[in-house]
């Protein structure tokens, strides 16, 4: 018995939805334990009376924020700039904090040489 997944299976990223009132994010991979919504249930497949588990806002107030790891921001702005806008939040954090670390090391080496 093999535990590896079939390499021919195509993994389709599923969109997440965020409550505009409180910021709760519905993760289809996790479902909703309070309402006994099983993991893997898409937002479109939720019952019509489903509401935000945090603030009880109806489904109409949720916005699609895309799949996990998708670039943040408005889609029409992703093509501007030097390509930073199209980076995922994790890559942006790595770029920002990596640059700060390099600057810190440069300044530290500058002061230690004199």
Description:
- The model is unreliable at 1-5 (pLDDT under 50).
- By secondary structure, the protein is an alpha+beta fold.
- It starts with 15 loop residues before the first strand and ends with a helix.
- The chain is built from one helix and three strands; from the N terminus they run βββα.
- The chain is 22% helix and 10% strand.
- It is elongated and about 70 Å long.
- The longest helix has 25 residues, at 89-113.
- A hairpin with a 5-residue loop joins strand 1 (16-19) and strand 2 (25-26).
- The chain has a three-stranded antiparallel sheet with strand order 2-1-3, with no helix packed on it.
Chain-wise SSE layout:
Blueprint: E1 16-19, E2 25-26, E3 62-66, H1 89-113
Antiparallel strand pairs: 1-2, 1-3
- Uncertain regions spanning at least 5 consecutive residues: 1-5
Mean pLDDT comes to: 85
The arrangement of helices and strands along the chain is EEEH
> How many helices does DSSP assign?
1
- Overall SS class: alpha+beta
Return Rg in Å.
Answer: 21 Å
With strands numbered from the N-terminus, the spatial order across the biggest sheet is 2-1-3
Q: What does the largest sheet look like?
A: 3 strands, antiparallel
Proportion in helices: 10-25%
First CA to last CA: what distance?
64 Å
Quaternary organisation of the protein chains: single chain
Number of strands: 3
Shape: elongated
Strand content: 5-15%
């Amino acid at each position: 018995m093999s535990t590896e997944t079939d390499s021919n299976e195509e993994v389709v990223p599923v969109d997440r939805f965020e409550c505009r009132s409180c910021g709760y994010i519905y993760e289809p991979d996790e479902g909703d334990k309070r309402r006994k919504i099983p993991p893997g249930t898409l937002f479109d497949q939720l019952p019509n009376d489903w509401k935000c588990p945090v603030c009880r806002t109806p489904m109409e107030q949720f916005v699609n924020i895309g799949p996990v790891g998708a670039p943040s921001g408005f889609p029409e702005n992703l093509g501007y700039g030097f390509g930073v806008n199209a980076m995922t939040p994790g890559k942006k954090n790595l770029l920002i904090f990596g640059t700060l670390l390099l600057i810190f090391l440069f300044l530290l080496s500058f002061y230690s040489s004199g």
